[in-house]
């Protein structure tokens, strides 16, 4: 299985339109053709973050920016556990 990491999001439902990469539709078409392999897309850029599953079943995770974390909070991070069974 594969995870895709990109700076700019690919899915409007997991972000906002102005944050998407300019050729998101073309990239998604390629990823959807490999839907048996590609599990999820992780992105940044949209400081509010977001999550969605697109029409092809591909998960999109937009990570929130650490710039929005309150002073004194030191746990702005994410941990992804992946399992042999194919889920995370």
Topology:
Elements (H helix, E strand, L loop, with lengths): L1 E4 L18 H10 L4 E6 L6 E4 L5 E4 L26
Parallel strand pairs: 1-2, 2-4
Antiparallel strand pairs: 3-4
The helix tally amounts to 1
- Order of strands, widest sheet: 1-2-4-3
User: What is the percent of helical residues?
Assistant: 10-25%
Ends distance: 11 Å
> What does the average pLDDT come to?
89
Order of helices and strands: EHEEE
Structural class: alpha/beta
Structure described in brief:
This protein has one helix and four strands; from the N terminus they run βαβββ. It is of the alpha/beta class.
What does this structure look like?
The protein is an alpha/beta fold. The protein has one helix and four strands, in the order βαβββ. It is flat, with a radius of gyration of 14 Å. The model has no long low-confidence stretch (mean pLDDT 89).
Q: Main attributes?
A:
four-stranded mixed beta sheet, 4 strands, flat, 88 residues, 11% helix, alpha/beta
């Amino acid at each position: 299985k594969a995870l895709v990491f990109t700076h700019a999001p690919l899915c409007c439902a997991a972000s906002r339109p102005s944050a998407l990469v300019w050729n998101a539709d073309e990239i998604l078409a390629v990823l959807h053709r490999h839907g048996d392999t590609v599990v999820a897309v992780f992105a940044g850029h949209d400081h509010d973050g977001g999550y969605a599953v697109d029409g092809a079943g591909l998960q999109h995770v937009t990570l929130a920016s650490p710039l929005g974390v309150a002073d004194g909070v030191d746990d702005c991070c994410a941990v992804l556990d992946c399992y042999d069974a194919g889920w995370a």
